[in-house]
Every structure is written in C-alpha cells, then in structure tokens.
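[agent] plan:
  1. take the single chain provided in the ticket
  2. run structure prediction with default settings
  3. attach structure tokens to the ticket
  4. add a short note for the reviewer (M.T.)
[agent] executing step 1
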Amino acid sequence: MLLLMDNAGCPVASQARPWDRLMVRVRGFRLDQDLAAGASPDGSVELALRARLLVRPRHRRELARSMGRLLSPAQWSPHGHPAVPFCRDRVRECEDELGELIGRLQATRPVPARGVAKAGLLLADASGPLYRRSSPGDLRAMVRDAADALLISA
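[agent] step 2 finished; step 3 output follows
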C-alpha cells in the first residue's frame, strides 16, 4: 500500500500493481531524472516505487561502490585504461567531493531519494561531464549538488 498525494494535496491510498513495478524498471532513468529535478516521490505510484528502491541501503551501497571504482586505478583494465572510458582528470579534480558523496551514500541514516537519484545520474548519463568532454556540465558542481541533496533539511 502506498500513500500518495492527489492534485489538491490530500493523501490517497494506492495499490502498486505488477505492471507498475515493471514500468519502474523500464523507466528507471526517466524517473530518476524526474526525482533529481524535484518531483515529489509521492506524486505517482511509479515515483513512489522508484524512490523506495533508490533509498534502500543495498542500492546505496552498490552506487557508492560504483563511484568508488572511479577513484581506484586497480579497477581499470590490465592495460591501464578503465573498462568504460571516463574523464580521469575531471574525476581527479573532484576526488574530495566524490569521497564526500560516497560517504553520504554509505551512511546508515535515511536519505532523500532526490539525492540518490542525482548521484545515480552522474554514473548513468553517458552524455554527462563524467564521460564526455563536450558536456557543458561541471562535474565538481554536480557531485557537490548530489552530496548536498543527500542531506535531510530540517
């Protein structure tokens, strides 16, 4: 059972169907973009299910582990190149920020789905500044933004 908000801001109970769960898997990237942009996790069944998945400790640990690989040359291929090419110099420039982001993902306290979505998009967006020099985005700023979004505002 999910508790969602209707257009008037009133809580409404909703049931997740198997189709909804499948669509969350298929539309994961798009749902992450929506959550990262500020969509409310209780705005739809799909957003609620995706948000639940993102904030699970296991998912956060896997995401932190994947980010940690960016910082570890030991994870690269035997020829000294990463298995998936990324902008190593950009990663080196924001090592501290990436370390902070990884630490916040690994924390045991609850975190907002928006922050996890932002962190995941850094790795998943092949057109972003992590992988493409021509990307207009600032990797350091994006990493800081994702780390900040993992903090719960009081």
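[agent] step 4 note for reviewer: The radius of gyration is 17 Å.
[agent] ticket updated
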